[in-house]
Design brief:
The chain is an all-beta fold. The protein has one helix spanning 284-289; strands spanning 6-7, 22-24, 30-32, 41-45, 50-53, 59-61, 67-69, 78-79, 92-94, 101-102, 115-117, 124-125, 138-140, 147-148, 161-163, 170-171, 184-185, 193-194, 206-208, 215-216, 229-232, 238-239, 252-255, 262-263, 277-278. The strands form six sheets. It has a five-stranded antiparallel β-sheet, with no helix packed on it.
C-alpha cells in the first residue's frame, strides 16, 4: 500500500463499525469496507492522486499526507485485522475514545509510523499489531488493556521506551523481540509469566522481576548484552532454558526466593563466574546444590 493519510472526521461514517479495510482496484477505484455494494464506501479518482468519496464532496488525499484520524462514533469499537498493514507511508494515528480492540496485524510493517496515541478504554491488542514498525520510538499502553498478543512490537528497531499496563499478567511471546534500541520498559507488578523471547535482543540495562512472577520463558532475555543488573522476585519458580543466555555483561544478581528457582541449562552460561549473587539468609546451602546457581 501507498496509503500515507486517511482523515476520517467526526461526522464521517467511514469505518464506523469495524475494520478500515482498503482495496484499490486496477481501475483506480478505492473501496473501503467492501465498497458501497457491501455497505461500505467507494473513493473515485479525478486524477492519479486525489480521490472523492462516492456520494460526498469531501476530497480525500490518499497519498500525500501522513496521519490517520479515526472517527468518533458510539458504534466504533473494533479495528479489524490488517486494516492498515503495509501502509509504508503512514506516520501517525489518533484513535477515538470508544475503541476497545485492535485486531491482528493492524499496523504490521508500517515502517514510517512514529506516533500512536492509544486511548484509555481499549482492552485488547491482538497479535502482530505493531510488528515491524521500525520507526516507532515510544509507546504507552493504557491501564485498561487486559491482554496483549504475541510478537506485538517484534523488530520495532527504533523503539526506546514502552509503558505496559498495570494489571497485566502475561508478557507475551516475542513481545519486544529484536527491539534493539529498547532501554526502558516496566514489568508490571502483577506479571505472572514472561513468555519466550519476550525481550530477546533488547538494550535493557536493568531488570527487576516482580514478586508475582512464577515463570520466565525460554530465551526471554537472551542476547541482552547491555543488561548489568538482575533482580529476581521471591515467587519465581522456573527459569526456562537460555532465559538469560548471551546476556554476558550481568554484574550483579539478587534472588529473593529462599528456594533456588529451577534454572534449566544455559541460563547464565555466558555470565562471569565471579559476579556477586545475593540470596536470602539461610539459603546458601540450597543454592550451592542447585544446578546453574552453583556455578
Amino acid at each position: 500500500y501507498s496509503l500515507k493519510n486517511l482523515v476520517l472526521g467526526i461526522a464521517s461514517p467511514i469505518c464506523a463499525v469495524a475494520a478500515c479495510e482498503l482495496e484499490r482496484l486496477d481501475s483506480g477505484l478505492v473501496r473501503i469496507n467492501g465498497g458501497e455494494e457491501n455497505g461500505g464506501f467507494d473513493l473515485i479518482s479525478n486524477d492519479s492522486t486525489v480521490y472523492y468519496e462516492t456520494g460526498m464532496n469531501d476530497i480525500k488525499s490518499y497519498y500525500e499526507l501522513g496521519k490517520v484520524t479515526l472517527p468518533v462514533s458510539d458504534e466504533f469499537e473494533y479495528i479489524d485485522s490488517s486494516a492498515f498493514s503495509g501502509c509504508t507511508q503512514l506516520e501517525s494515528v489518533d484513535f477515538p475514545i470508544g475503541v476497545t480492540k485492535l485486531g491482528q496485524s493492524v499496523f504490521n510493517s508500517c515502517s514510517k509510523l512514529k506516533n500512536v496515541k492509544i486511548p484509555e478504554g481499549l482492552t485488547e491488542i491482538d497479535h502482530y499489531c505493531f510488528y515491524y514498525c521500525s520507526s516507532l520510538d515510544s509507546i504507552e499502553i493504557p491501564n485498561s488493556v487486559e491482554a496483549l498478543g504475541i510478537s506485538l512490537f517484534y523488530k520495532c528497531s527504533s523503539l526506546k521506551k514502552a509503558k505496559l499496563p498495570d494489571g497485566l499478567t502475561v508478557i507475551p511471546e516475542r513481545a519486544f523481540q529484536d527491539c534493539s534500541s529498547l532501554t526502558d520498559v516496566n514489568i508490571p507488578a502483577t506479571t505472572q509469566t514472561i513468555e519466550m523471547y519476550a525481550f530477546y535482543n533488547t538494550k535493557l540495562k536493568s531488570v527487576a522481576i516482580p514478586y508475582s512472577t512464577k515463570r520466565i520463558g525460554y530465551g526471554a532475555f537472551t542476547l541482552c548484552d547491555s543488561l548489568t543488573y538482575l533482580e529476581i522476585g521471591s515467587s519465581v519458580e522456573t527459569l526456562e532454558p537460555n532465559a538469560f543466555t548471551l546476556s554476558k555483561n550481568i554484574q550483579q544478581i539478587i534472588s529473593y526466593n529462599p528456594q533456588p528457582p529451577v534454572a534449566d541449562y544455559g541460563n547464565f552460561i555466558w555470565a562471569k563466574r565471579d559476579i556477586p549473587l545475593y540470596i536470602p539468609q539461610g539459603s546458601l546451602s540450597l543454592y550451592k546444590q542447585a544446578a546453574e546457581w552453583n556455578q
